[in-house]
Here is the input.
Amino acid sequence: MSSLGVKWLWGYRKLRCERLHSVRLLNLMMQKGIDYFDLERTEEGEISFLLLEKEYKILMSILDKTDIKVYSVYCRGVPFVIKAHRNRGGLVFGLAIYLTIIFLSSFFIWDIKVVSTTDTPHNVIIKNLEALGCYEGAFVPSIDFENLCIDYVDKYTDFSWVSVNLKGTVAYVEIQEKKLYGEEADTPRNLIASYGGIIEDYSVYEGRSQVETGNVVKRGDLLVSGIVDNKDGDFRLCRAKGEVMATVDAALTVEVPFSYQKQIYTGRCFEEKRIRFFNLTFPYFSDDVPKDINCTSLEEVASAVLFEEIELPLSLEKTAYREYTVKDFVYSEEEAKAAAEALMKRKISKELPNAELISVETSEKTTESSYILTLNIKCRMDITTPAEIETN
Amino acid sequence: MKRRRRSFGEALADGTGFPDTLSVSAPDIHIIGTREISIDGCLGILVYESTQIQLRLKGRVLCICGECLTLKTYYTGHVSVKGHIFSLQFEEGL
Here is the structure.
């Protein structure tokens, strides 16, 4: 394939010679050192072969002195294409402009991609880079990538290092957030009671227990101390770890007002459409959005992609506005009760996670304006919660 | 019996034990099965038919008989013949 490509670049012809002169022609080409390829012979004895254009000219000059006739079957290659289009100056001009645009566009950043996994959203990182001069459409020679990385870390102290590598016209950003390795795991702490109750059972893995089974504790009492005495009379600080299971009486209350407001969409929608090329935006369609209405907005961006892989710096943006009105509604008592029960479920899972319910007493109260649901819960749970040891 | 005169190259090859292919004027012939034969040292084509190809070597003629014979490469003394080769025959040359 590659040799055919080279031949196509030089240009080649297919020649045919009759049976009468075929052997003479082959001997002549051998004597003069003319290389040919893909020799074929028909049943009638005619031969055909391919010859590079430069060799053809040499052969023709030799055959002029003989009576050997050869016929050109076809011509292929760059020289013939150029010859066929030599009167089409516009084509050449267009090709030149195309190549120039491709060359010049390589001096701009077309896309920025953050390839590291970070807690910080990628669009925040890209916005930070934009503030330092690295953005889609930026002129590459004007960016000092080394200083950019140093400036980024100096300015945004939540990151330990950043690297921006330009591959073609895409800037790949690798970034590392600062992590306090070991500090959390080694920080001395106590364990205190998150709820009051009666201690049923406890397990201490690290630290010194301050309670025993049967003790009554109230919220905030010290359960496991992170200050441990040494044998030589001194003491050391440690990170208290353990479980203290207690029977807890907890009262959870939820209040649901009967009247509430809700957004109702009217069905009216308005749109704004824009074309974005690098950082330039060209609006091409816009509904007149009245100024005195309430609406939610939703933005959609569709980027042009080449061959399903290469994202171009060209995108269509659409902002859709949906009008809504705020209306007052009133719960019936049944509806208010259902809403209160749903809220109570969420509250229990948040405040009493992993609790083993022993008994639940429900009380309801209806006022003029709201429905109040109260649960008195008796449960068994781990009441430890960490608390820092204050050292002065 | 008439004794054939040997060239200096042939005599040197015989005396030293070097292969004949290293001597100056000997054609080099390689046969691959019965489908291909390549010859270095070919001086010209005498006959080119689908059933017979005659090649002029130094001092002799090589006659290749077979079916669907074709010349595949041919440049500066190197010839490659492909097809169904039935026989090779050397004849006294021109």
Q: What stands out?
A: Residues 333-351 of chain A form the longest helix (19 residues). Chain A has nine helices and 22 strands. The two ends of chain A are 80 Å apart (CA to CA). Residues 260-330 of chain A form one domain.
